[in-house]
Structure formats: structure tokens, C-alpha cells
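On clarity, I found the account of how folds are encoded harder to follow than it need be. An entry of this sort, consisting of the sequence and the corresponding C-alpha cells, reads as follows:
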Amino acid sequence: MAKEYETVIGLEVHVELATKTKIFCGCSTEFGGAPNTHTCPVCTGMPGSLPVLNKQVVEYAMAVGLATNCTITQNCKFDRKNYFYPDNPQNYQISQLYLPICRDGKVEIELENGEKKFVRIHEIHMEEDAGKLVHDEWDDTSMVDYNRSGVPLIEIVSEPDMRSAEEVIAYLDKLRMTIQYLGASDCKLNEGSMRADVNLSVREVGASEFGTRTEMKNLNSFKAIARAIENEKNRQIDLIEEGKEVTQETRRWDDNNGYSYAMRSKEDAQDYRYFPDPDLVPIVISDEWIEKVKANQPELRDEKKARYISEFNLPEYDASIITGSKKLADIFEETNKECNNPKKVSNWLMVETMRLLKENNMDDTDVKFSPSNLAKLIKLTDDGKINSSVAKEVFEKVFAEDIDPEKYVEEKGLVMDSNEDDLKAIVEKVIAENPQSVEDYHNGKTKAIGFLVGQTMKATGGKANPGMINKLLKELL
């Protein structure tokens, strides 16, 4: 009888915080920029330079900890993690091992079948990011860019509570949503502001001991993470079935080729020779400071979703989709304040906005149009000034360029023609030119009227009132 195996997964999630400056100096954290232009003696590890802690980093870390049900460590400190690598200018990283700022949290995830479970968080600690190596394959050289060195990170370390790729994605999505709603990070995986390392082992179903785990790096999308988990699970099962041992190591996932390869043996804490950082004083977090951060916590996704259903009477599906993006939720609320039509606002966001995002391969955070212009477009349709097909055409311009729809409709002469006498003459002409459709209609083929509506719309350049066309056609037929 074939053995059954269970996958055991824990995650280390690094999140770049949305501060304007780095964790221990005043250099910019802005993404991009020419190499080595966002640097100073502190973040390039020059001898004699001294770090000064950015208070906002501590507050963001506390905010994430409170939102994930962690205990805040009121006396915490920084440690030096020693390792030697070209993108690590000091030859150590300032991190937290002994007294991380947050501990013992948990987040609730919901799976596609409606099942809910908790994933425990072992700790959240603050640390600085390293620089970035740029490899030139033509010259066979590597260059280092220290712009990212010293960018503030939190590392969220889970317990090994996940058992499938679906659970991992649900957990990451919940974390990303929570952090985005807090404003602590934009969590863009493609820009590296959220990065997940997957610790995975397999064991026989029913076994109490964990198997030997590997850590997988270089995972920059949810799809890549799911593929990497499936691949590594099968790789480890194959090794066990062949009577071979799984080696504890760090592996790099190659998403283009669909396989992982060993990078190095997996280090343990003692390999890094941690010791307290002598240049940074301990952090004392008062009860008052915690209460202040608590008081500033915004409404998070689950609460917002429940409110949209009760306050705006949105279906649960609509509320789920809209609150699934902080950006769309913000646009929804601001637009609705101006036009007071929640269902229509919801429809524009869920249908046309989502369609254009997909067609343009854009992230929801890339939406640029203002809620005010969406509200104006909805009002134009509600007031009968433009029909639905014109509204979609105008919205594409709003989406791409954030144009003022009222001015655009006026300038382009797109205001709907609702003059009954003018339309009647056009409808009569369409009826005269399409005798077969008229005969079909009289023979009970009611769909024929749809063709005649289309022909009338075409004759009016798409500007006619479809409701009035229908009414006139039925009267004249």
C-alpha cells in the first residue's frame, strides 16, 4: 500500500515598510533611482558612522503586530547578525533575535471551501535590508547597488501551521491585505516590498515528528509560490521513496524553468554569531505608546466588508471583491460620498475597472483615476445624458487619463439624443431598410427587434437613448 505524505509549511515574510527614509539614516527609501544615489556613510557601513533609529519603523511594526494579535515586547533591542556577502556593507545586519518587537500572534484564514483556520505567528522583528547585486552576464562581473541597503523591514515568522499551497496563499493574502490597510507597506511582490521564503518539509500522515526542511527563496508572485511548493513537495517525496535523505539547505526557485536548485546549506542562529548591537540603545515601549498606536489603527478588511454589506446593502460577493483591494475600497467610499449610489459604484469597479486592469496587465494599486470623475460619469448616466455604451467609452478615457467626463462628453458631442421626433424619423428609416427583420418580428421572432435597435444606434453614432428606441420600434412595428 502506497504511503501517504503530509506537507508541513512555515513562512518567513519580509515586508519593506513605507517610511520616507531608511531605518537608521535619513536616506530616501524610494524605489528605483540611479545605483548608489540613495546612500550615505551609515547605510554603506563606513567606519565610525552611527545608526539612529527611525521612530516610524517602530510604530509600523507595532501596528502590524497589533493587527495580527501579537504581544508587544515592551523592552526590546537590536542585535547584530554577522555574515559576509558583497551586498552587506557592514558585514553584519542589524536585526532582532533575542527580544523581537512582536511575539505569539495569529491570523485567521479562510479557504475556498469556506473552512477557516488560524496560522500562528511566532514573532515579528525589525531589521535593515541589504543592498542588491547586479550581475552582468556579458562581462561576467557583478556590481553592487546600495540604494536598498538600510531600507526598513519587518520579518513575520509563522509557525509551521500550513499544510498546502492554498493555505499559504490565503495566509499571504491576509497579511498583504492587513498591511496595506494599515498603510505600513504597499506589499508589491513584483518590486520586492513583500518577499516570502518558504520552509517546507514532508512526513508520513500520522507522524508526530517533522521531516527535514528546506528553505526556498526568490519567490516574487503568488503563482510562483504555489508552483514552488508543489515542486518541492514532490522532490522531497521522491527522495524519501528512493530511500535517500532530504538535505537541510536553502534552495533558489527558478520560475521560468519550473525547478529549484541548492544554493547553500541552511544556517542556524549560532552560525550568525548574534550579539547585542552596541551602537543602539534598547527600545522601551510604554503602555501609552501602545494605546496611541491602537487608537490610530484603521478599519481593516474584514470589518469593512461586514460594514459594506450592512450599510450599503451590497451583496457579499461585491463587498469581497471591493475590499480585496485597499485602493478600490478607498475609491468606492470616496465615489459613493459624491454620488450616493453604492451598487452602481460597485459595478463600475468590479466590471469595467477590473477588465481594464487585466487588459493592461496592471495591479490595482496602479489605478490613477479620481473618485470625483467616476462619480461624475455615474451622474451623467443617471441623468440620462449619456447611454451605457458611451459611458463605457468615456470610462476608458477616465481610467487611462483621469479626464473630466462632463467636459469630455460636451467637447466630443456625446450627449444622448432623446428628442423623440428626431429619433422617430431615424427609426422609420431603419424599419423601411430592413423588411426581413420586420417580417421576422411579426412572425414572433422577438429577437429581431434587437437587430433593429442596433441599426438605429449605428445610425445615431451610438448617441441615442436605447430605451426610447425600443419604445418607438414597438409602437411603429
The chain has three domains: 5-289, 299-411, 420-476. The mean pLDDT is 89. The domain at 420-476 is CATH 1.10.10.410 (Arc Repressor Mutant, subunit A).
